[in-house]
Amino acid sequence: MSIESTGLRESKKRETRQLISDHATRLFMAQGFESTTIAEIANAARVAKKTVTNYFPRKEDMAFDHQDAFVASLAQAVAARLVGESALGALRRTFEAGVAAQDPVIGFAGADFSRMIHESPTLSTCLRTLHDRREEVLAAALAEATGSSPDDITAHTAAALLAAVHRVLFRRIQELTLAGRTNDEIAAVVAHEAADAFRVLEPALGHYAVA
User: Which of 19, 100, 159, 202 has the most CB atoms within 10 Å of its CB?
Assistant: First the structure.
């Protein structure tokens, strides 16, 4: 098989995956996650039920289609820190950029999507699990950045503190979204609150994992 045909096949797979995810999310927001069936999603996307489950073994994966990017986000920020910059500084800078861009990864997902998660016990549980996974990946990145062992207690403690700030701010963005505030209003509020939240960690982590 040629490289060109392999590329076309992979492109088609990505398109099909995105199509299924888009239709699933639309149905989840319109009628609720728990109430939506695989058959309804397959019918909307005009594919077989088996195709849906081949691409998404779990129904919640269709709602959190970009979960890998979410889980890796904090670790990537640490890996990309500037010379002389601490892990805290890199994460603060990256979060500030996310607020300015109103990035969905930090919580700017829109009212319908935020309500979908809030009203679904399954998706709420899944989101908590994604936050936990993100913390674990961050701990590994911090251990690597400081030349420590993977089970280093300092790296895991620092990861727990840094991830907690992001978890609190993510929840805050969701709360303000559900309260009917616009993204611009939310960004203004969260930019101020994030500065306070990160400042709390400065005494303990201001010089930790400096590049």
Answer: 159
